[in-house]
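Changelog note: in this version the structure field was regenerated for every chain. One regenerated record is shown below for reference.
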Amino acid sequence: MDPKILRRKVENINTLPTVPAVLKRLSTIIEKPRITIVEISSFISNDPALTTKVLKMVNSAIYGFPGRIASVSHATMLLGLNVIKGLLLGVSVFDLMQQTMRGLYEHSLACAIASRVIAQKKNMKEPEEVSVAGLLHDIGKVILILEFATEYENAMAEARRQNISIYEAERKQFNATHADVGGWLAEKWRFPTSLIEVIEFHHRPVQAKNAPLETAVVHMADLLVRARGFGFAGEDLVPEVHPVAFELLGLTQQDIRDVLREMEDNMASAEDIS
């Protein structure tokens, strides 16, 4: 497949027949050039089901706030525009994740938690944004499976047959990967460069120029979650940690044990937010 044609299809997400109306409506809202926190809050508050999901997410182990957040306006003030946009996408695609790839929802939740814990260990300024990147890192898989179900099944079968990663199999099938697709969507939705890079390069952290540390965090979180067996990301293969990410993060064995323990402790409550 020509990657340029694929990108045009992905960027015209609102015209894809397989994409549910709720995601199309959300896409239209968040890609507005000058969307404000007030508009986002109003959009959420006008949908009771969405409000419930957002507040469940904000009060979950993914963010780890010590006090209860009872209103959408409080949540948006605490988290900021980019995190709220990402969180909205996260809660909107959870059902799709469960429909398109069993276990992808749990994998994404665990990756969000692990990303936050690692970011906090590294004393990063915006651990919530890194957590959102972990939550959305595989969103490209959802769109590929929705629109190209047969081709994606072929890619998964090829990965199993040749014992290669799903990332490599996608490249053979589509001349692009879920990471590329996620990056295109993040750009379309006007996320900051740092978040776009994390999604696009979470398998290739060495290529991140603007957000190398954030990308390394999500790369490490993704692999730790796979190794621990939380959910399913399309394959059983667990790639090695990229040396650049390993060096950037400088995590000790004790750090990694701490991350795994906190992830395990928090997953039970986090899985109840769908």
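Spot check on this record: The longest helix spans residues 81-100. The mean pLDDT is 88.
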